[in-house]
Specification:
This protein has about 120 residues and is of the alpha+beta class. About 40% of the residues lie in helices and about 20% in strands. The relative contact order is 0.21.
Length: about 120
């Protein structure tokens, strides 16, 4: 039931949220142990860049990938990488998850790093 509800919410959000090369979609996936974030260009079906708690540079900074601290680190790293690629505006796709906890921490850290959404 829980996964079906998330899938339904995600489908509803994806009807409206579309990423372009100028304003990519910031897509979030979270599991119990990790959090994954991508910047996607939906028009060309390309992943521009991605960061997760499983990436090597992120594992050095965090102990466990399934908490709010890890989400903040991933959000900050994504913001820095995006600014290096000259991306400042994105559309946020929360992936059907409720906007609290790790998702909110990730979004706030990304905004603090300089991305606008």
């Amino acid at each position: 039931m829980k996964l079906e509800g998330r899938a339904r919410r995600h489908k509803r959000v994806r009807k409206k949220v579309i990423g372009t090369a100028q304003r990519p979609r910031l897509s979030v996936f979270r599991s119990l142990k990790h959090i994954y974030v991508q910047l996607l260009d939906d028009e060309n079906s390309k992943t521009i860049l991605s960061v997760s708690t499983r990436s090597k540079d992120c594992r050095e900074k965090i102990k466990y990938g399934g908490n709010i601290l890890a989400a903040k680190v991933v959000g900050k790293m994504l913001g820095e990488k995006a600014l290096n690629n000259k991306i400042t505006d994105v559309v946020f796709d929360r992936g059907g998850y409720l906007y609290h906890g790790r998702i909110k921490a990730l979004a706030d850290a990304t905004r603090e790093a300089g991305l606008k959404f």
